[in-house]
Specification:
The protein has 7 helices and no strands. It is mainly α and about 180 residues long.
Length: about 180
């Protein structure tokens, strides 16, 4: 029950009062986003388990992409950038509550997608440079720091728009062919 979840979370969170800020709405959005994230993770686990089962039964299946080959569509980066601009502008404008909530929801989803892509881009960069697992761990930790996660989201938006990971991979392959 979403209502009960929101109510229990509201009891845990101290009462924060700022003009134009509704804590109940924020908690509701966090609960809904967490449900979506859990649904996505369940779908991913089901997909991976079914591929393992197909391999075990020696049936044909499609080769899985590595996480470095996952590519978000360009429109998603444009929506994330536009939602960030709208979110920043909404602080100085008088908006209806439903408009503010809609802008905030789109902003959260867009920024999560761009942070995800930015983190993958940085991990790919460290991997191509031969850096250790510590660099990858630090990248994942940096996603949780408020100032750095916006920078990582920016890296993700640049990657989606300019396809930097694909270009890096082509450059590495070109160097390998040149050496042979």
């Amino acid at each position: 029950d979403i209502q009960a979840e929101v109510q229990s979370m509201m009891e845990m969170v101290p009462d924060i009062s700022m003009p134009g800020f509704d804590m109940a709405t924020l908690v509701l959005e966090i609960v809904i986003l967490s449900y979506l994230a859990i649904a996505f993770m369940q779908a991913l686990v089901t997909h991976l388990m079914s591929n393992l089962l197909l391999q075990r039964l020696k049936l044909k299946n499609r080769k899985l992409q590595t996480i470095f080959e996952v590519k978000l569509p360009k429109w998603m980066a444009l929506v994330a950038i536009a939602s960030y601009v709208l979110y920043a502008m909404s602080a100085s404008m008088e908006l209806e509550t439903w408009m503010y909530q809609s802008i905030m929801a789109v902003y959260l989803v867009g920024m999560l997608a761009m942070v995800f892509d930015g983190c993958i881009t940085l991990m790919c960069y460290f991997r191509l440079r031969g850096k250790g697992k510590l660099a990858i761990f630090l990248c994942m930790f940096a996603c949780m720091i408020p100032g750095l996660n916006m920078g990582i989201a920016g890296i993700g938006a640049v990657d989606v728009l300019l396809e930097t990971r694909r270009r890096w991979k082509e450059g590495v392959l070109r160097e390998i062919h040149r050496e042979n």
